[in-house]
Amino acid sequence: MIKAIIFDMGGVVFKNVMDDTYEEVGKKFDIDPKLVKDESRSLRIEWQLNKISTEEFFRRLASILKISDASSLKDVWNEAFIENCAPNKKAIEIIKKLKRQDYKVAVLSNVTDMYTNHHRDRKDYDLFSFVFLSFELRMRKPEKEIYEYVINKMNVKFEECIFIDDKEVNLVTARKLGMKTILFQSAEQLEKELKKLL
Question: What does the domain layout of the chain look like in residue ranges?
Fold first, then answer.
């Protein structure tokens, strides 16, 4: 019997803004967006794990990309989030309905302090009964430790959970541990998949 549904945030409940961010940085500083993506990948992981600060992330990335002003890089990155992070209204309706049906509803997100602050300011996390953020936990998907932590905190078993993410790599570990999983493609597809599992 399913007791808990765990959602990824970016790319599921809200639009994933990363491609927009790489494009905006590329446009502003005349750099190939693919280079921005590739060069920021390992730094973003450290940032999501709270191993480096926001300022350190932008200082190091600016140095790699040969951008003289790290603060203007941060501003462009920030603005890309604010302008592009739109809610998936249909997915939000699904979450509210699940809560009314007394399921435990959680968010599990690989996220930085900067994005966390934006979501908190907008009260986006108020949608969920449980909030699990890589930045705060110093763990991230797809490491099995973060799934084990979530299960313990929610006081459920793996087989009592459905995990929804837009990245297959994050579903593999959850599936191996015994969770039901849904690869998110659209809110309509999510609704159909949930009906089969609930």
Answer: 4-15+86-197, 18-84
